[in-house]
């Protein structure tokens, strides 16, 4: 996997690419979606962040969140080439409930979703999981590991989130390219497995 370009070089797709897939990167407020897409994108990511102000304190709960000064107000966008034939377009959605109206447009044409969760704030993931299921998107869970956060067993997380046995659950650090790539690969493999089942 190449490093991200510093300029427009490499922005255009190679002619060998056969599949370009739209993937949503979703999760509750301040779970690391913007960081994840910024880490993974091989092109300069599109970000729509605004400075957080005191006016939003009553709707943006910062309990358990450290160092959060900006928030996404529309979407994040990035692109990652996983192989010579497969490119993923990553679309990040805002995590606050007041931005739910953007989901209808964002989910159109998406093949699946990677749901980032904070193991210390699992309850905040339920509305996001419900929305993804409501739109019929297959998904994988990626537990974003924050500094000083204790590691919880997958079995405990699976039970707490009420996941189906086949739903992938992986751990990543949204700041780390390799673990973030592994999370996307787990989702792609799951999507491929579902496709294979439906065609047999």
TrEMBL record:
Keyword Kinase belongs to the record? no
Gene3D superfamilies noted in UniProt: P-loop containing nucleotide triphosphate hydrolases
Q: Which UniProt keywords apply?
A: GTP-binding, Hydrolase, Nucleotide-binding
- One Pfam family here: ATP_bind_1
What GO terms are given for molecular function? GTP binding; hydrolase activity
UniProt record similarity statement: Belongs to the GPN-loop GTPase family.
The molecule here is called ATP-binding protein
Q: Which organism is it from?
A: Actinacidiphila bryophytorum
* Organism placement in taxonomy: Bacteria, Bacillati, Actinomycetota, Actinomycetes, Kitasatosporales
């Amino acid at each position: 996997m190449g490093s991200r370009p510093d300029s427009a070089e490499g922005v255009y797709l190679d002619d060998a690419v056969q599949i370009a897939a739209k993937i949503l990167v979703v999760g509750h407020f301040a779970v690391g979606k913007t960081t994840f897409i910024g880490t993974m994108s091989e092109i300069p990511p599109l970000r729509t962040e605004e400075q957080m102000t005191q006016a939003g304190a009553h709707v943006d709960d910062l309990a358990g969140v450290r160092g959060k000064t900006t928030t996404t107000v529309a979407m994040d966008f990035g692109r990652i080439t996983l192989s010579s034939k497969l490119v993923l377009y990553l679309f990040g959605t805002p995590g606050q409930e007041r931005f739910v109206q953007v989901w209808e447009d964002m989910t159109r044409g998406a093949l699946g979703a990677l749901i980032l969760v904070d193991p210390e704030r699992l309850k905040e993931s339920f509305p996001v999981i419900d929305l993804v299921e409501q739109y019929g998107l297959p998904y994988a869970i990626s537990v974003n590991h924050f500094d000083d956060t204790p590691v919880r067993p997958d079995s405990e997380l699976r039970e707490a989130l009420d996941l189906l046995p086949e739903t992938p659950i992986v751990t990543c650090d949204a700041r780390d390219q390799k673990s973030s790539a592994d999370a996307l690969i787990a989702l792609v493999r799951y999507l491929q497995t579902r496709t294979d089942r439906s065609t047999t």
